[in-house]
Amino acid sequence: FLCTSLVFLSHLLSHHHISQTDYAPYFYDNGPNSNNGNMALLNLSEDTPKGTQIYVLNGTDPEGQPVKYGMTFEPGSKEYFRVHPKSGAVTLIEELDREAQDEIEVFVSISDGLNKVTEKVSVFVMDANDERPQFQNMPSIVDVPENTTSGNSIYKVQAVDRDTGSGGSVTYFLQSSEPSTKFAIDHHSGVLRIKPGETLDYEKSRTHFITVVAKDGGGIYKGKHQVMSSSATLTINVIDTQDTPPVFVGTPYFGYVYEVSSPVSIHHNTTSMHLFCTSFDGWKGISIPHHWSKCSQYIYSGADGVFAINKTSGCIILKVYPADLRREVYNIKVKALEVSPEAKRLDFAVTTVTIRVVDLNNHPPTFFGENGPQNVFELTMYEHPPEGEFLRGLKITVNDSDQGSNAKFHLRLVGPGRMLRVVPQTVLNEAQVTVLVEDSAAMDFEKSQFLTFKLLAVEIDTPERFSATADIIIHLLDTNDNAPKFSSDFYITWIPENSPGGSSVVSVTATDPDSGLWGVVKYSIYGSGADLFLIQPDSGIIYTQPWASLDAEVKSKYNFYVKAEDTDGKYSLAEVFVTIMDLNDHSPAFNENSLEKTMVIGAPVKIEAIDEDAEEPNNVIEYSIMKSDPDDIFNIDADTGEIKLKPYIKSMDIVQNITNHKDCTWSVVVQAKDRGSPSFSTTTVVKIDITEATQLKGPLTSFLMKSRENPLQLLGLISGVIIIMVLVTVFISTIIYMRNVKSNKILPSRRIIKRKRKPRRQDDFQQPFREEHYGGKFRNEDLESPSADNINFNNNVKVCSHRVPPSPPNVPVMPPPLPTHYRHGERGWTVPTVSASVASKTKKRSHRGKDNPVNTALVSELKLRLEQKNMANRY
């Protein structure tokens, strides 16, 4: 039983372990141009300040567990970065120096607590102009025979700037304390020559001191452009000439060395007077014999520190292992000097010793320019070249001196964005490198005037994975590829209406990022609203015309367009909206027609004042009663101007008790005051006749009474009724016409069967649905007795309850008249005054009887149509 339990428990634990499998976290690979990911192929400028956050490690765990980041370096190597374990932020903690180390290998790790993944990545340190040119052979002392021909080179100054690009190019200059120096230096090669027409004279001057200045081409350092230089002194000793200079015997001299050889000394047969090389059975050495009368010495140049010469015997030896040689051919300059008994150097002779190295398969790829090996290529071109075009100014050849698979390598271009592409991407031995444009828009002069790319060549199938790099520096030239751009698509501004002519309105600004004259912007305005304004062409300030007079009541809003144009005619537009700010410069004015009112008890009367100011609150009016006679019997609505009696005045009897005057006309002093600042007010006297209302009923009467104060409302109603009637008539006429067309079609059956129509009355019923019939019907239905619930909106006539009402006004225009048989006098209208009621004179309506000819004609027509339809369906 115990064994069985143990087996079951083991199986259960094994099953639990399988179900809890945890996968390892991983980094995001966002490529070399991203600022987050696994930090692979990161480019970092060497002038990046210490303490700068340069990158963010970014990864994830498949199970969603929180991850921690780590960073380590090779044992014994300098730690340049530090990473925050949680956020992944990478901070620079040590100063960078590309010249000391241009590639930093870092081990980055990501862990979820159970699993840890470590990747080895490389960070490329990009160059900044932080190095001065360093002289390789200065200061120095040069012995120059006095008979040296003018124009001959006497010395070659060599200075090296370890920076790349323009910051690594060196130019040479002379600074001489002498008033007129006899020497000149080639600015590019550093070759020092005697000026044409100048000669050296040992007797006049035996020594010349020349200060040579080496200056780089300048570059960016910590965001600023700087040029660095160094100087050194060259001492030129003028040597007295001799008659017989040294002579080398057996020139030219050649020698060979194998890469498998060991560094050994090579002696030569001193009895021979010729330079010779022994057999190629290992490096045996060569010696250079020389005839001299007193004493001879041998010096050399061009050996790159790997060869040495015995100054007495002339034997050349190899100082390093051949595997460390980096060139196939060495051309060593050997100089033989005559030395006087006083140990003074006299005449000399120079010869070249060529030593060829028999190569093994251990050379990295090498980039070549037009003049030999080159690791910096510069090009000047205009921005935005056509996509797919190759850069014609770059002549780059890449070569690997090895053979077979050891000479096969990849080409890759690393730089900002994906602007360029290199072809071919795989090379065997040697190829011409072509760089194509992929993203023309990114090559923008306004964004960057210099573009730096790194061309990488990395071997594919070799365990050493030798590689080479070359810098491609592109200097962009500007073109007019930008139109001026306003700081805003529209400008909104306000100006007071009392502003004098020539006042400043608004300043618009447009910028053109192009350089030179292309970046000069001129302004102009146009549009229907631009007549009152002008603009300064250079500054963009908009003013009112000197003669302009602004009035918000006449026109308060203007809009027009402003145009910004460069010298090539490229332009952009912006719209300007100008609002004339209203000032409170008008007083309220009462309507003269509303100063005499008739008030029916229980209903208000309304007075009205108008303020011609354009905007609120300048044109908002408040009404108030300043004084009334009798006092304190009226209330006024401050917003609408409606005047009412006090609530306790409900009949004329109360009115008679208030005043002893038989006349019921009372005066009220009303003030109209606007809400502007400062505020203006106007007062007027309103005379109000008090009367009692006659009980009139009906909405039409109420509407007519209201319309007396607003006749346009009545006119609009009548016009609307007429339009509706015309539309209805046209619609009905169209239906009848279509039915008549359909019914008048002659069918075969109708040729046989005819039906006589009944005789009809002589009345005109050819068009029973004409406008007159419906007009009559409309008139009869609408003539109801109106009521007069509120009749104080048209009460400009002074009336009182005891006065005789005036004659009624004309009846409003009605629809077209009825046919001739209709008697227009059957129903009359009497429009009362404001103190009377609307009464109708009712008579018998004979046209509503059964004998109405309209009804008879309508019934006959309907019967006829029905019979025609039945016959058509039958046949």
TrEMBL record:
Q: Where is the composition biased (Basic and acidic residues)?
A: 761-782
Q: Alphabetically list the UniProt keywords.
A: Calcium, Cell adhesion, Membrane, Receptor, Repeat, Signal, Transmembrane, Transmembrane helix
Q: Which GO terms describe its molecular function?
A: calcium ion binding
Source lineage = Eukaryota, Metazoa, Chordata, Craniata, Vertebrata
- Membrane topology listed for this record: Single-pass membrane protein
Where in or outside the cell it occurs: the entry states: Membrane
Q: What is this protein called?
A: Photoreceptor cadherin
Q: Which GO terms describe its cellular component?
A: cell-cell junction; plasma membrane
Q: Where is the signal peptide?
A: 1-21
Query: Entry's Pfam families?
Result: Cadherin
Q: What CDD domains does its record include?
A: Cadherin_repeat
Please name the GO terms of the biological process aspect recorded for this protein, alphabetically.
Answer: anatomical structure morphogenesis; homophilic cell adhesion via plasma membrane adhesion molecules
According to its UniProt entry, this protein's organism is Cyprinus carpio (Common carp)
Q: Where is this region: Disordered?
A: 753-789
What InterPro entries does this protein map onto?
Cadherin-domain_protein, Cadherin-like_dom, Cadherin-like_sf, Cadherin_CS
- Span-the-membrane segments of this chain are 714-737
The Cadherin domain sits at 44-135, 136-248, 298-367, 373-486, 487-590, 592-701
